[in-house]
Amino acid sequence: MTKALFIGTTGMLAKAAEHAAARADTCILAARNASGFSFSKPAIDARTRKLDLDYEKAARFLTLVRQHAPFDLALTWVRPQAEEMRNAIARMMTKDALLVEVLGSASAKAGGFADRRAKAMRAFPHIRYAQVVLGFVIEGGTSRWLTHEEISAAAIKALDTGTPRISAGQTGPWEKRPQESGQ
After folding, report:
1. pTM of whole model > 0.90?
2. In sequence order, which residues have a C-beta less than 8 Å from that of residue 135 and are 6 or more positions away?
3. Nearest Cα to 62, choosing from 33, 95, 87?
4. Left, alpha or beta for 18 (phi > 0: left; psi -120 to 50: alpha)?
5. How confident is the model over 45-61, as pLDDT tens digits?
6. What is the C-alpha separation between 127 and 22, in angstroms, rounded?
7. What's 86's DSSP letter?
8. Which residues partner with 100 through β-bridges?
9. Which of 59, 54, 62 is nearest to 91 (CA)?
10. Of 132, 71, 60, which Cα lies nearest the Cα of 103?
11. What are residue 44's phi and psi, to 5 degrees?
12. What is the strand order of the sheet 26-31 is part of?
């Protein structure tokens, strides 16, 4: 029986979560408004337990998610400041499970959060760990943030291959990133 955990995947990662959920026997979806989310696929929705949780309320979040552990697969979009929560999720994974973390564009800087997180994950040798680092696209001399489709495509690649780090778009040069708000 394969059990998947999805955290923060109801927006830009919805297609990637659906891709993984289609292959899981049981899914746990944890998000602030999880109960209002649908994969629009009755078979997947029927085997998805939706937990309305805010990971910034870590104690409650972890208590309720832990009730459904262990997990064989996890896809997460969590702010870097929630590192202890990230480690708690890693401890909920089965042997040989795959944990895919999606990280913002700023994490890609040398010695940045992506590097620090990869190093911290060495404390969990029982699981496979992959990162999807979000970047941007330069088209016709201007840059833009990635679309939801581009982000999900990169996450699906990580889910399917377990590649340790995948960049979605480009992460540099940093001064070429879009100047409007985004990742």
Report:
1. yes
2. 105, 108, 146, 167, 168, 169, 170, 171, 172, 177
3. 87
4. alpha
5. 999 999 999 988 989 99
6. 21
7. H
8. 75, 130
9. 62
10. 132
11. -75, -45
12. 48-52, 26-31, 3-7, 71-77, 93-103, 128-134, 165-168
